[in-house]
Every structure is written in C-alpha cells, then in structure tokens.
Amino acid sequence: MELYPISLNVKNKKCVVVGGGNVAERKVKSLLACSANIYVISPQITKNIEDLSLYKKISWLKEEFAPNLIHDSFLVIAATNNRIINEEISKYCEKNNILVNVIDSMENSNFIVNATMKQNDLVISVSTSGKSPALARKIKEELKLKYGKEYGILLEILGETRELVKANISDENLRKEFFTKVIDTEILDLIKQEKVIEAKRRVKSWLLSH
Q: What PANTHER family would the database entry show (predicted)?
C-alpha cells in the first residue's frame, strides 16, 4: 500500500483514544505533546492516564465505546484488545470521514503513526508502511544516536536567523550559500562543545559581513 507521509496539526482538535491500556497510554502521551484536546473512552485506564485525567490534562469517559461518543472527532485511535470493537470504530470513522488508526490493523486504518525521533523542532519519522514496526523502531534508535540534541539547537539557530537573512540578503543564491555555510562549517562542533553563545555570535558575524 502506498501511503502519503504528512505531519498533522492536532492542536486543540478533538482526538479520541478508545482503550485504556499501555498502548492507549503511549498514544495519549504523544497526542498530549502536540496539544490535542484528548478524550479517552474506556471503563478502565492505567494509573498514568487516570493521573492525567485528575489534573485535567485529558477527559476520561468511563464507559464502553458507543459511536455517538466520537461523532465530532477529528482523529480516533482504536487501542482496545477487542477486534470487533476496533473494526466497528474503523467502519464508523470511514463512513463519517474521521481519521482513524486501529492498532495492529493497517487494513482498518486510514493513517498510521510513524516511529519518530525528536530533537526540539527537528522531527524525523520512519515508516515501514506497516510491515515491520520493530524495524522502524530500530532505525529510529539509530537516528537518535546520529542526530543528537546539537541538531535541535542548530535548527533553533537557523530558525532565529531566517528572517534576518531574508531581510539582509536579497539574492536567493547568496542566502542558500549562507545557510549552507552555517550547516557545513564549525557551528555544529561549537554546539557539541556546549559553546552555543559563540556559535550564535559567529553566525551573526557572518550575516553582518554580507
């Protein structure tokens, strides 16, 4: 199956996780990190999900699944251990144009969640198109070793500089040369040595020289 890779903005969107076990907990935490408006539907939940509910981080509907509970959802994750319920969720979502991911059932999902590593705003996702989550996790761990926190800081510096570069360097080719210089020279090494202030000073100096 050919899948179209996207990054989805779920901020303040109603996202529902049906199920209350460990898998559901992981999905809740990942959605919470993206500022989603989260509802969990399940008679029983893990202690961590319960704590999130008590602190008003999420909403817990302590009941069995019913279609009316997800009718206005933006996104639904079916994470129960009941195949029949998961399929019912999938069919309802497909009929009502709701994004749905059914755990361990690509054929009943219209999207899948990639294995993802993150360093600040740097996000790298790995997909095996549902064929091997284990391989995706292995590659993700290797990427985490290769692209450490210094890359997140480098991206932060590039982001802070971007508008200044646009304002001060009118030629598009020169802008590309400037960013290439920042990425390919000693800036990353300075960050690795925890000399972030010096790295920022050097980038600013290069910019002023244009």
A: SIROHEME BIOSYNTHESIS PROTEIN MET8 (PTHR35330)
